[in-house]
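User: Can you help me understand a structure? I only have the sequence.
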Amino acid sequence: MGGLQSEARAGRRRSWILRHSAIVRVTHWINFLCLAVLLMSGLQIFNAHSALYWGQASDFPHPLLAMDARPDQQGALRGVTTVLGHDFDTTGVLGLSYVLGFGERERGFPAWATLPGMQWLAMGRRWHFFFAWIFIINGLVYLTSGLASGHFRRDLLPTGEQLRHIGGAIWDHLRLRFPKGEEARRYNVLQKLAYLAVVFLILPAIALAGMTMSPNLDSIAPQLVILFGGRQSARTIHFLLAAALVTFFLVHVLMVLLSGVWNNMRSMTSGWYRIEHTEDVDDRTA
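Assistant: Let's start by predicting it. Here is the structure, written out as tokens:
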């Protein structure tokens, strides 16, 4: 109690809110697990043919992206990543990397980034497809709950006022100034727009693009191939959207760390989020 009184004298007050429901918290962590496994097993599958094309068939001479190993002038292998016809030396990371017990090997992504680490396409596909269905079921649970409870409308839909001040929100984030007090009760406009884009655009599109690459699903829904402009186009879109998710994840983790890691982690595990109020002592004692 003494601690609370000393904080009041300093002009500070704390309050607690239930920021995340149980459904949001559970589906969030299941999504985290699924996406981690899907990413690493997806890179394992990509390594079976580490190149991307556009259209229905592979255009081997003109890949949009390719990772391979080539001999240099001295005959030593170098990892090379080709992007839109431009070559980059990526030895040690992409194209040619070290595999424990085997030395340097030609492979798209390194062993530490794939599941399993060794080149094993069949096992990578098993991991990928198993967790893909968990991911889809978990997503449907989240969507159903979010619509039924009003979570999307209440917590993710930006208000007109927030949209009018989006420039200020961007500037505040660039200066690492995060919402405090009552403003911290809700997501800021950048969070809302990012979460809406991930939930309603990127995740559904990446799932549909993945389904388009399955011959069995193509026979059931051939319109998917037409929608994505061919199976190779779907594979490229799937890869690019996965890269977008990785970018979102890195920014998301950075913001969690900078804006209060323990408070944010507590809110996504127990649901409870602590708000620090800074008040003018004269206003409170008037």
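Now, to help you interpret it: The chain has twelve helices and eight strands. The two ends are 23 Å apart (CA to CA). Let me know which part you'd like to focus on.
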